Amino acid sequence: MDADLDDLNRFTVRKVPHGDGRWSYWVFTPSGELHIPSVEVLKKYGSSSQQTYAYSLVDHLNWASRNGKTPATVTV
């Protein structure tokens, strides 16, 4: 698969500004929608931890997607 096309089918992390000058790191789906389950996890943390955890979540979500897995089929 072409690398550019592959990037279009991936979860991504975006740095989102707030009106008060703070930043959050949120996960977005391949279709560009906010990934709500990830936000529920990330909103508990400050921006530095959010950044670390967001990229980790994206790695896992992209792995699951690439391997045909869903949250219902992956266990810890």
Strand content: 15-25%
In whole angstroms, the N-to-C terminal distance is 30 Å
In angstroms, what is the radius of gyration? 13 Å
Largest sheet properties: 2 strands, antiparallel
Which geometry do the CA atoms define? globular
Number of helices: 3
Backbone structural class: alpha+beta
Number of domains: 1
- DSSP strand tally: 2
SSE topology string:
HEEHH
Mean model confidence by pLDDT: 89
Low-confidence stretches: none
The largest sheet has its strands arranged as 1-2
Helix content: 40-55%
Describe this structure in words.
The mean pLDDT is 89. With 76 residues, this protein is an alpha+beta fold. It contains three helices and two strands; from the N terminus they run αββαα. It has one domain (3-66). The termini are far apart. Helices cover 43% and strands 16% of the residues.
Quick summary of this structure?
This protein is α+β, with helices and mostly antiparallel strands. It has helices spanning 3-8, 36-42, 47-66; strands spanning 12-17, 23-28. It has three helices and two strands, in the order H-E-E-H-H.
Keywords:
76 residues, alpha+beta, two-stranded antiparallel ribbon, 16% strand, globular
Please specify the SSE layout and strand pairing.
Blueprint lengths: L2 H6 L3 E6 L5 E6 L7 H7 L4 H20 L10
Antiparallel strand pairs: 1-2
